[in-house]
């Protein structure tokens, strides 16, 4: 019968492949485990999988778009994100981050990634917000304005 041994019409290789794959998965988990930080980043990225959220496009990054100034070694990183009529300007420094939502509106901002992931920041009447801890590693911002949710691209601090 051409090597067909099982009642379901297969020769048993699918079951063997499944067992081998599971053994390899377990060995990798023991010998080369997933770093906790990477797992958290993956969880945070999946949390952003929100069909109602708009993605804010990075329209300016001072690391790429700015002209360097001679003698300045620790210039803050300036970022601008846009989603339709909404703009979010962010300045990232070693002391933290601060930014402004334009046009100003009541909002809640969460910094995703890093040691204080998901901690909400308050936005004042002029659209300004600040965090006293700089993001470490990849981060994104989630902006909630009532019924509207906007998320930024993930960037490395």
Describe the model.
This protein has three helices and ten strands. It has helices spanning 13-31, 36-47, 62-65; strands spanning 54-61, 77-83, 86-93, 96-102, 108-112, 119-122, 128-131, 138-145, 148-152, 155-156. Strands 1, 2, 3, 4, 5, 6, 7, 8, 9 and 10 form a ten-stranded mixed beta sheet that branches. It is elongated.
Quick gist of this model?
This protein is an alpha+beta fold and 157 residues long.
List the helices and strands and how they pair.
Layout: H1 13-31, H2 36-47, E1 54-61, H3 62-65, E2 77-83, E3 86-93, E4 96-102, E5 108-112, E6 119-122, E7 128-131, E8 138-145, E9 148-152, E10 155-156
Radius of gyration equals 23 Å
Q: Which class of secondary structure composition applies to the elements?
A: alpha+beta
Overall geometry comes to elongated
Please count the beta strands (DSSP E, at least 2 residues each).
10
Task: Tell me the fraction of residues in β-strands, as a range.
Answer: 35-45%
**How would a crystallographer describe the biggest sheet?**
10 strands, mixed
Pick out the low-confidence regions. Answer: none
Span from first to last CA? Answer: 62 Å
Query: What string gives the helices and strands in order?
Result: HHEHEEEEEEEEE
Helical content, roughly? 10-25%
Mean pLDDT: 81
Number of helical segments? Answer: 3
């Amino acid at each position: 019968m051409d090597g067909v041994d099982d009642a379901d019409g297969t020769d048993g290789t699918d079951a063997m492949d499944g067992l081998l794959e599971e053994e390899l998965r377990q060995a990798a988990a023991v010998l080369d485990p997933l770093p906790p930080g990477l797992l958290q980043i993956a969880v945070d990225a999946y949390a952003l999988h929100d069909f109602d959220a708009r993605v804010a496009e990075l329209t300016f990054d001072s690391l790429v778009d700015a002209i360097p100034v001679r003698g300045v070694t620790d210039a803050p990183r300036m970022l601008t994100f846009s989603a339709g009529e909404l703009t979010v300007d962010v300045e990232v420094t070693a002391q933290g981050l601060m930014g402004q939502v334009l046009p100003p509106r009541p909002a809640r901002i969460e910094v995703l990634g890093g040691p204080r992931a998901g901690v909400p920041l308050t936005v004042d009447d002029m659209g300004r917000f600040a965090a006293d801890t700089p993001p470490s590693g990849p981060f994104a911002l989630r902006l909630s304005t009532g019924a509207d949710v906007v998320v930024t691209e993930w960037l490395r601090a």
